[in-house]
Please model this.
Amino acid sequence: MEPREFQWPMSVLYSRFFARAMEPAYAEVARQAPIPPQAQALLDIGGADGRLALALAKQYPHLPRIVTADISQDLVTRAQRKAREHGFSERIHSEVQDVHNLNYPDDSFDVTMSFGSMHHWRDPVTGVKELCRVLKPQGKLLIYDGNDRPSLKDMKRTVSTIEGSTIWTALVYWMGSKDFLSRDEITGIVRDAGIKFLSITWNGPLCLIGGTKEG
Model:
């Protein structure tokens, strides 16, 4: 599958309805993400219209540089606009990037992360390797995604633990879950990437691929 590039008018629908419904999830990820206090630069790949970047900027005022990147120019433009509107244009930078070929030098970021993007990547193994390549030694990789195809009931139960979530949040999660990878596929991605410091944490229909880079 090719990375999904949302162009107008799909980018408008995605931003105004789907991404807005996911704001409680973005806030929850920002609250739980183990961002080191000494971190200076974070890359959010597949960041769409920048809502996760905004949540991170609010949650971690010590973090001076957040790069939110997406393959869709229209969503990147929307992310730039949101950063300006919320007063974060000096800290949040939005760029067009393809996870399979990131235009950053090795060891560029203290944290590389993605939320709900990996199951859209054409080649997840390459994407994982690229996020690790641009990660500094002792930096953290955090890839949040879904696994398998949960029932709407299971998704409602999972989402109900997120502060501020609604039935619309659960419905959006469930609608997107048709493209989720299986547990075996996700395990295979981590195995084939061949990166020793990575591990997988399972949480019902959600998972986290993460670890601290050696060196």
